[in-house]
Amino acid sequence: MVRVCSAEKKKRAIPHRLISGPEQRHTNCVAGEFLWRSAAAAAMTVTAGSRPVWQPNSESSACEKCRRHFTLVFRRHHCRGCGKVVCDKCSEHRVILPESYNYGPSKQRVCDTCYVTLVAIEYQLGLEQGKVVPPDYPAIRTDLLRRVNSYLSLPEIGWGSEGDHNGVKVSMRSIESSPVSCIRSKMLIKAPIKKVMEVYSNMDVWRNWNPYVSSRTVEQVDGTSKVMTAVYEFPVIDKRDSCFFTSIMDSSTVEALEDHKGLTVAAISVDHPLCPVEKGMVRSDMHISLSLLEPVDDGIYTHFTSIVHSDPKGLLPPFVINAFLSRGSDHLRGMAKFIEAKLQS
Question: Where do the coiled-coil regions begin and end (predicted)?
Answer without folding.
Answer: none
